[in-house]
């Protein structure tokens, strides 16, 4: 089954936008992500409608952050994308006649509901800026590994 990577792509875009400047084109983002600019625009359109981004058409136009990333949670971005399915597993048949399948679906349904609630709690409590701080920590650790002390 194919995975939906729109949340990952959108978060990637937002983090790069903060570093790239006040206005970023879909083409620049597409090159960075190795993705078609049309795909980038589709992803960003949901973020614009949620008030996370703004867009300017025409020469010199592009996308800009409408809010600071510390005010945008991963949950906000997920919801702006139309709440894509969280899991690729689920019941075989929504209304089965088989009692065994009913028991299986009940158990899976409860487990998936609990997992989804926990995931959404985490997404709503983590800001995109939190991810940015994590990126900076990773860069610092990587830079330390590259610098070897003199003997």
Automatic annotation (TrEMBL):
This is Rrf2 family transcriptional regulator. Pfam families: Rrf2. One of its GO terms (cellular component) is cytosol. InterPro entries: Tscrpt_reg_Rrf2, WH-like_DNA-bd_sf, WH_DNA-bd_sf. GO terms for molecular function: DNA-binding transcription factor activity.
């Amino acid at each position: 089954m194919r995975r939906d990577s729109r949340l990952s792509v959108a978060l990637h875009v937002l983090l790069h936008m903060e570093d790239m400047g006040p206005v970023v084109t879909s083409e620049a983002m597409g090159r960075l992500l190795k993705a078609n600019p049309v795909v980038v625009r589709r992803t960003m359109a949901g973020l614009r409608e949620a008030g996370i981004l703004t867009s300017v058409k025409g020469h010199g136009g592009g996308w800009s952050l409408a809010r600071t990333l510390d005010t945008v949670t991963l949950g906000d971005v997920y919801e702006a994308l139309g709440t894509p399915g969280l899991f690729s597993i689920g019941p075989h048949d929504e209304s089965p006649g088989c009692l065994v399948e009913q028991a299986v679906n009940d158990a899976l349904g409860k487990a998936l509901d609990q997992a989804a609630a926990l995931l959404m709690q985490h997404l709503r409590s983590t800001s995109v800026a939190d991810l940015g701080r994590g990126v900076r920590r990773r860069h610092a650790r990587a830079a330390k590994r590259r610098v070897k002390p003199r003997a």
